[in-house]
Recover the amino acids of this structure.
């Protein structure tokens, strides 16, 4: 299942597509992630240039990427606004995925809210910022507060009935939480984290989603840039104070150094395949047929111009086995 539908030739590359769960959406296996573009807030990525962000979105579309993932909370509305501005500058109409359930306060800190009236208000605000009449995929950002997920899902199902959104999905849910809401309305997709450094989704979720025809769009496939080969102790030390990555355990010892070693070992694999480390990291998550697509973050056009190529890559079983070995060695290192 979830095999490539109609490969599209683009600049000599085949931008692969896979069908999203039970829906009729055919997503390119690389989707554009727009979190970092949103600029400063509690979980910002340091200074951000709007012109570059819009250029990155337009580059993604020109390269054949057919969908964009955003969220109201990314930059407190700003990421969605930038997507809306970019859409005005192109005739291409990509599939738009956004989210609900995370608001923000005056200090630009996230506030979880799954109250039905709030979900409805959020949807209207997102439609306005994005400048579209319909959101193709509307996702509950987090199952928080957990006791409210059923009521929120009911409201999202109503928004779908009213054709304000086309399909509804979830993000950061576990199997039990998905089972609870599936009793109310079908789940089109799950958006979980997945990368060489975060493989929890392999335990249960991938299998469950495949068995139940739920699409899987994985986030942070390059582990927020760590797997691109562009990180070093110097770059880490120089990250802006308002870059949230400074606070993530992956960017602290012993994990950070273990990842630098891993990346050094991955380098020859990328070289012999004539690809970059960023492309290797993305094609590695796409090796799993249960994964519909990877959401690949970018905030500059050159970044996505490099990474979209991963849509057309297939790793050999020897490469996959060797990567498996390197990942086990890294785990041993950080457990010691
Ligand atoms: N649902 C959720 O809870 C959730 C959580 C996380 C992410 N997401 C979604 O998934 C998307 C992707 O995840 P992510 O942005 O966290 O992580 P990611 O895709 O693993 O990494 C993105 C970062 O990697 C760096 N990068 C990108 N292309 C590069 C290249 N060609 N060479 C070197 N570095 C490159 C950039 O950082 P620099 O510009 O700093 O170098 C970029 O911001 C997000 O934008 C968002 O849409 C959703």
């Amino acid at each position: 299942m979830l095999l490539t539908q109609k490969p599209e030739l683009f600049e000599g590359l085949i931008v692969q597509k896979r069908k999203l769960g039970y829906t009729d959406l055919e997503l390119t296996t690389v989707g554009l992630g727009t979190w970092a573009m949103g600029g400063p807030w509690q979980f910002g990525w340091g200074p951000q240039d709007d012109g570059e962000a819009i250029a990155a979105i337009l580059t993604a579309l020109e390269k054949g990427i057919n969908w964009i993932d955003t969220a109201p909370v990314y930059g407190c509305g700003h990421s969605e606004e930038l997507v809306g501005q970019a859409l005005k500058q192109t005739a291409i109409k990509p599939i738009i995925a956004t989210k609900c359930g995370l608001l923000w306060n005056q200090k630009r800190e996230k506030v979880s809210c799954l109250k039905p009236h709030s979900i409805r208000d959020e949807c209207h605000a997102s439609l306005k910022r994005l400048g579209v009449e319909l959101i193709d995929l509307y996702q509950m950002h987090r199952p928080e507060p957990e006791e409210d997920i059923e009521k929120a899902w009911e409201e999202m199902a109503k928004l779908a009935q009213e054709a304000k959104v086309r399909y509804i999905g979830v993000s950061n849910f576990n199997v039990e939480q998905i089972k609870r809401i599936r009793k109310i309305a079908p789940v089109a997709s799950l958006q979980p984290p997945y990368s060489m450094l975060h493989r929890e989704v392999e335990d249960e979720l991938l299998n469950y989603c495949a068995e139940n025809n739920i699409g899987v769009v994985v986030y942070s496939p390059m582990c927020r840039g760590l797997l691109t080969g562009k990180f070093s102790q110097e770059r880490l030390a120089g990250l802006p104070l308002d870059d949230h990555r400074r606070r993530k355990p992956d960017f602290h010892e012993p994990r950070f150094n273990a990842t630098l070693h891993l990346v050094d070992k991955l380098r020859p694999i990328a070289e012999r395949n004539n690809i970059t480390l960023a492309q290797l990291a993305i094609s590695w998550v796409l090796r799993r047929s249960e994964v519909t697509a990877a959401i690949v973050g970018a905030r500059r056009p050159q970044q996505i111009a490099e990474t979209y190529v991963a849509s057309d890559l297939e790793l050999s079983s020897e490469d996959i086995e060797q990567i498996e070995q390197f990942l086990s060695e890294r785990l041993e290192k950080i457990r010691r």
